[in-house]
Design goal:
This protein is α/β, with parallel strands linked by helices and 305 residues long. It contains seven helices and ten strands. Strand 8, helix 5 and strand 9 form a beta-alpha-beta unit. The chain binds 1,4-anhydro-D-erythro-pent-1-enitol and uracil.
Length: 305
């Protein structure tokens, strides 16, 4: 039995730890044992710095084979090095390990991480995987602290697609999420009864400032009125929060066949302002809310044998 839980940068969090009895091998944020060559690669990367936030969580159990990958070349490789995870199929016992994710902010980071995570799930022979993208967001017309479970993840034109340029050609992928899983998240919130959770569309952008119509970036060439027009149009299109990874996450979930849900807390109401000015204590409490929901879901649905 193997259950895995990858949380948003806080492996020591009591809420996350409360799920650890369900995890046979949880080593979030530990360093895997690497051979010298891998260690050298890691040392080269250390200098690049980075922020480690807003990662998805995955719950899974192992099966005979994993069907999540779709690449005929994988089986011809003698070794598969998951460079950004510092793991390799020859250097690590992947079926016995599950875990550590470090990455930055936004679509490029989550895409790289998900490619390698999905290959890792396959190498580890996981099946019945469920994926969550949990984290923070800016709300649209909801009280700060409200958790938004995403109905549709939409791009900056409010369309439910994720576009990626592949070989110079723009490919468009649908961002449909698993409706049943989303409903289960809402049920979990009702059962917990601790904070408001709503269904809503989630706007995914490639930038925190201009991309999210803020007036407080280093550059701003639009008026306050144009900003409000855009945010009001988003609200009219059913958008209840804005973040930076969900379209890529949803598209990859759809392509791999992994049921996915996006669960993000809102740190402010963007119809009221741009700056995140709540106290550290308030923000920390808000950020635990998606974890609480997902922890509740895992406890309900994954039992140790
Ligand atoms: C939400 O918050 C982060 C930006 O502050 C980003 O990762 C996101 O999606
Ligand atoms: N994360 C975002 O992407 N936007 C916000 O406004 C807050 C958190």
């Amino acid at each position: 039995m193997c259950r895995a839980w990858i949380a948003e940068g806080r492996a020591g969090d009591p809420l996350v730890n409360s799920c650890l009895p369900l995890v046979s091998k949880a080593y979030a944020y530990s360093q895997p044992q690497s051979p010298r060559s891998l260690r050298k690669r890691r040392q080269r990367r250390v200098g690049t710095g980075g922020l480690f936030v807003d990662v998805p969580s995955i719950a899974s159990s192992p099966g005979e084979r994993s069907a999540y990958v779709s690449n005929p070349y994988l089986s011809t490789m003698k070794e598969d090095i998951l460079y950004h995870f510092d793991l390799g199929t020859r250097t690590h016992d992947l079926p016995a390990m599950f875990g550590d994710v470090k990455h930055g902010i936004g679509i490029p980071s989550i895409l790289i991480m998900l490619h390698e995570l999905i290959k890792l799930l396959s190498h580890a022979k996981c099946s019945d995987v469920v994926a969550f993208r949990m984290g923070t967001s800016g709300g649209i017309g909801v009280q700060p602290g409200t958790v938004v479970v995403t109905k549709e993840s939409v791009n900056p034109s409010f369309n439910p697609v994720f576009e990626l340029v592949v070989l110079g050609v723009t490919k468009s992928y649908p961002t449909a999420l698993n409706e049943r899983l989303a409903q289960e998240m809402l049920n979990c919130s009702k059962e917990l009864g601790k904070f408001d959770t709503v269904f809503g569309n989630t706007l995914c952008t490639s930038d925190f400032y201009e991309g999210q119509a803020r007036l407080d970036g280093a550059f701003c060439h639009y008026t306050a009125e144009e900003k409000m027009n855009y945010l009001n149009a988003a609200c009219k299109a059913g958008v209840r929060n804005i973040e930076m990874e969900s379209t890529a996450f949803a598209a990859i979930c759809a392509r791999s066949g992994i049921p996915g849900a996006v669960v993000c807390v809102t740190l402010l109401d963007r119809l009221q302002g741009d700056q995140i000015s709540s106290s550290h204590e308030v923000l920390s409490e808000y950020q635990k809310r998606p974890q609480m929901l997902i922890a509740h879901y895992i406890k309900k649905n994954f039992k140790t044998k």
